[in-house]
Structure formats: C-alpha cells, structure tokens
Amino acid sequence: MLFSVKRFRARVKTKAFYCLRCSAKTAAFLFWATLYMIVMRLTVFKSGESKQAKDWSILPDNYTKWLMQGPVLGDDSPEEIANNLLEPDNVTISELETRAARVQNVCQDRSLDSQTINNKEFFVDHAHNLVWCNIFKAASSSWLYNFNILGGYDKKFLARTQQTPLTLARKKFPRPSEEELRDTITTPGVISLLVVREPFVRLLSAYRDKLEYNSPPFYRKLAKSIVAEQREEAIKVLGPIKSIGPTFYEFVAYLIAKHKAQGPKMVYDEHWAPYYQFCSPCAVNFTVIAKVETLSRDSAYVIQQLGLGQVLERRVKNRRTRLRIIMNKSRDGKNTSALLRHYFGQLDDNMLNDLLHIYGIDFEMFGYETNLYKRYVRHKNL
C-alpha cells in the first residue's frame, strides 16, 4: 500500500510537470499568435480593408496623384461638377457653336488657313468616334483618364499602376499620321475635341509647376539657364531675390527674348506652347471647343453626343467634389485672382505687350479678355 502511494505521487508529479510545461508552451504560443495578429491587423489587413472600401467610380489614387501634382488655377467649380450628368442645354450648344465659328473667323482674319497639322499631340479613338488634342495644363489629366478607360484599362489597374496616364494612353492610342488624322476628322459622326483655358492662367500654372521651386529633373537645366541669363536684370527690377529657381519675371523675360530672337519659327515647350500652334485649330476645324472654365458641361456634351455615359461612368461623389475644391486653389491656398495679381505685378506694361505678341492670337481666337492684366502690371511712366 505504501509502495502504491509513493508510485501514485511520483506519477502525479510527472504529469503535473508535463502539464505545466504544456501550459507554458500554449501560453507562449497564444501570446506570440496574438501579437502577430495585432501587427497584421494594423498593417496588412488594414490596407486590405481600405482597398476594399475604395469607390472605383471616382478618380483613382494614381490619377488623383497626377491631378494634384501641380498647382491648378481656374479649374471648374464643384457646382459645375454636380451637374456633370445633366444633358447639355440649348445655351451650352449655342455657346459651343459660337466658339467654333469664332476660331474659324480668327483663322481667316489672321491668314492662318494654310496652317499645317501638328499631329503628334492628337489621340484618335476610332472605336468611339472621338479625336482629342492634348494640351497640357488644360484638363489633360481628366481627358487622359477618359481615354484610358475608353482604351480598355480597368479602374483598379489604373489606381495601382506606377505608369503615367500619358504613357498608358499612348500604348492604346499611338500618335496618328497626318493622313489618318485628316481622314478621321472628316468622317461623319466623329467629334474632334479641343480643351483650352485662359492662356495666362495656364502659363502661370505651368511656370509654378515646372520652374518656380523644385523643378522636375527635365526642367532643372532650363531653370538654371534662365536664372543665369536673367537674374542680374531681375535684381535691378525686383530687388534682392532669395529664390533658387527663376522668378516669374525671369521666366517671362526668357520667353520674350527667345521669341524676339527666333520669331514665328520658335519651338515652345509643350506646357506653354500657344494653342493655335500646338493643336493647329485652323487646319483641324474642331467640332467642340471646350474650356476648363466650363469643363463639366462641355465634356457632358461630348459624352452625351457619343453615348459614352455608361462606359465612362462619370458619377459625382463627395470625394471628387472635395478634390476639386482643393484643386481650385494653389498649394499656398491663394485663389486664382490673387495669384495673377501677385505674379503679373512683377511685369511691366512693355513686357505684357511683348507677351501678348506670343499669346495674343490665343486670347482672340478663344474669346478671352486681356484688359485685366493691364491693371496688374507695373507702368513705367508712373
């Protein structure tokens, strides 16, 4: 009996040891498993949930990045976007007809009827009967997105790809030959689209995006060259300059000097080339002349005429409205008028006149006013 009790106690101790060791292992496993799940929850699972919650009917993240990359001035208002799905009214149709007629009248008055076509900047979508000339800084991101959707890209792919919208679009719509472009434009039922914006607003937006502060790699050499050429004279006019990049005064002085030296044969950067040269409206005779200032209703007309509503799925969401409100202002929160007054205040009336020799045809051709800028610039005789 004594032997049995000792044996029993030994067995109990042995089993208790094994139980305690197993319990310790189990507790350790549960601890590390819980910690692992917490980490995964805060990282991988959280990002996965945000992807699932994404609304693909709005501009995807990749396109938001490109839209927000540079300062946007004079963009369409949230109120206009809210009417994006409405069919164009008679006022819109009449206005579009007036714009097209105005362009042709200016082409005749300026003897530009024999203009050659710059076919390199056109996108031709044969499947949807649409031709578009891409003017940078004039709703180019919005219509590049449209063309990528029309080209068959999935919205989820567009949201995660690192390729630029322009690169993607060119894979689907390569540069047309001049013959292909002419044949397509004259085909019944095809809409040829040109989107413009107030010329000096676009010029300022391009300057601020490409040259003013941290210039993109492609423009750094140009920025340094402008400063080297114009800084000495700019200091005489503006006083001490702290900026490493060129001031707006220096940029405009560079454009004027180059234009005077090269004349009509001057080759412009694509971000500030005059519209009448870049997209050849006197040779193409665009069906629709849209404007950034009325972009939503002008785009709605094109979409409605070609029956592209279901393909593009242009539904208004709160996030897009908030995005446009942000885009309506520059990076420093100033509105368009304040920015124009500030930057054009660096120029004098002679520089304004020289600048209008470059862009005056654009103002005249597309119905924009120049008188505003006479109040902004400095007057030498005062």
TrEMBL record:
Q: How does it sit in the membrane?
A: Single-pass type II membrane protein
Q: What is its main location?
A: Golgi
A GO cellular-component term linked to this record: Golgi membrane
A Pfam family matched in the record: Sulfotransfer_2
Swiss-Prot/TrEMBL keywords: Carbohydrate metabolism, Glycoprotein, Golgi apparatus, Membrane, Signal-anchor, Transferase, Transmembrane, Transmembrane helix
Please tell me the species this chain comes from. Papilio xuthus
As for family, the record states:
Belongs to the sulfotransferase 2 family.
E.C. number: 2.8.2.-
The processes (GO biological process) annotated in the record are: carbohydrate biosynthetic process
Could you give a GO molecular-function term held by this entry? sulfotransferase activity
Record localization: Golgi apparatus membrane
Protein name, entry field: Carbohydrate sulfotransferase
Transmembrane residue ranges:
16-39
Keyword Hydrolase found: no
- Organism placement in taxonomy: Eukaryota, Metazoa, Ecdysozoa, Arthropoda, Hexapoda
What the entry lists under InterPro entries is as follows: Carb_sulfotrans_8-10, Sulfotransferase
